[in-house]
Amino acid sequence: MSTTRTRHTLSSLSSLSSLSAVLAAGVLVLGACSSDDTAASDSPSGTVTVTAGPPDSTVAPGPGGEGDGGESDDCSGLTGADAVARWAGDVPPNSGGYPWAPESAETDGYDPCADLSWIILPIEGGTASSPYQIMLFHNGSYLGTATSDDYGFYPDISRVDDATVSVTWHWPKDGESNVGRSGESTAQFTWDESTQSVQMNGEVPPV
Question: Suppose 164 and one of 7, 16, 155, 190 were both cysteines; which one would form an S-S bond, judging by CB atoms 3.0 to 4.6 Å apart?
Fold first, then answer.
């Protein structure tokens, strides 16, 4: 009887020892999993959100820019053709309702850096007495037309200084033909820096 109890006790102890080993292993496994979860949560995710600051307002000068002794920051950097392509569509319709002809615009007076410059805009299929309009620009950017009305015959325009241009319109007096026209009207247009606008001094053709 004593030998049987001893064997039973040893068997129970062996079972308890095996169970303890299993539980200990389970604790180790759980500990390892817990450690892995913590490491994963500390590592960066696949998507990173970056908050951008305000864009840099400094623009490196391009070809002909101030950085290499060319145009200053006040210049538009546009050619006369560029200016026509960008703003000819903003010119109001002429009195005759004819379509303007941007492709035939006279751009010799355009200066992307001048306080005041100009482009002469004709109509499509025009004749000597057809209407023209004068587009004005400050530092190469469009300001508007020199006058609200358009006038017939090609105007003579010359530069007085960087901020002033002089315009002479031609028109026939009573009894004169278009070929023999002798009427003239002259006005000067000046960019006024203090008011940021163009001031006109002179007269326009009679209408």
Answer: 190
